[in-house]
UniProtKB/TrEMBL annotation:
<dbReference type="InterPro" id="IPR016181">
    <property type="entry name" value="Acyl_CoA_acyltransferase"/>
</dbReference>
<protein>
    <submittedName>
        <fullName>GNAT family N-acetyltransferase</fullName>
    </submittedName>
</protein>
<dbReference type="InterPro" id="IPR000182">
    <property type="entry name" value="GNAT_dom"/>
</dbReference>
<feature type="domain" description="N-acetyltransferase">
    <location>
        <begin position="16"/>
        <end position="153"/>
    </location>
</feature>
<dbReference type="Pfam" id="PF00583">
    <property type="entry name" value="Acetyltransf_1"/>
</dbReference>
<dbReference type="InterPro" id="IPR039840">
    <property type="entry name" value="NAA80"/>
</dbReference>
Length: 156
């Protein structure tokens, strides 16, 4: 596979975040999102071939733990060196074990390598504490999904 990879460089668990391009990774990406963001919430209508996933400047990402897909997210590049984090999901049986943190670490590395200086996310209310623990700042608490932001350290 020639997918861009953002491996763990901390010498701990064998994990990496990959940009989705291979069919097997697309299938895992959609399976995770469907199960966590739709089925677990009692929602229907998941669209596996949504055009937003394949737009230019939109990057579906997959967290692999020892080559097993455990999490998914999408990074949408915007203007002004800003990107929006979308559809973050960790398999139910893997939640609460630090994998969300791993996914976000890889996503941030990917974003930095694409010139992103600022991330935004419309978070589920229950995820605000998760993002806060990762250094995100709440900028808009109203509405169904609070908005948080994080400034990334840029590399010279």
């Amino acid at each position: 596979m020639n997918e861009p990879r953002f491996p763990n460089d901390e010498g701990e668990d064998a994990w990496m975040v990959v940009q989705v391009s291979a069919d097997e990774h697309w299938n895992a990406y959609h399976d995770i999102r469907r199960a966590v963001l739709f089925e677990a919430r009692g929602l229907i209508g998941y669209e596996a071939n949504h055009p937003d996933d394949r737009r230019d400047e939109h990057f579906p990402l997959l967290l692999l733990l020892e080559n097993t897909p455990v999490g998914a997210a999408r990074l949408d590049l915007m203007d002004d060196a800003t990107a929006c984090v979308r559809t973050v999901a960790i398999r139910a049986e893997c939640q609460g074990k630090g994998y969300g943190r791993m996914l976000m670490t890889g996503l941030e590395k990917f974003a930095s390598q694409h010139g992103v200086e600022r991330l935004l996310v419309n978070a589920a209310r229950g995820a605000v504490g998760f993002y806060g623990a990762l250094g995100w700042t709440l900028v808009e608490a109203g509405g169904e999904n609070p908005v948080l932001t994080k400034e990334l350290r840029t590399r010279p």
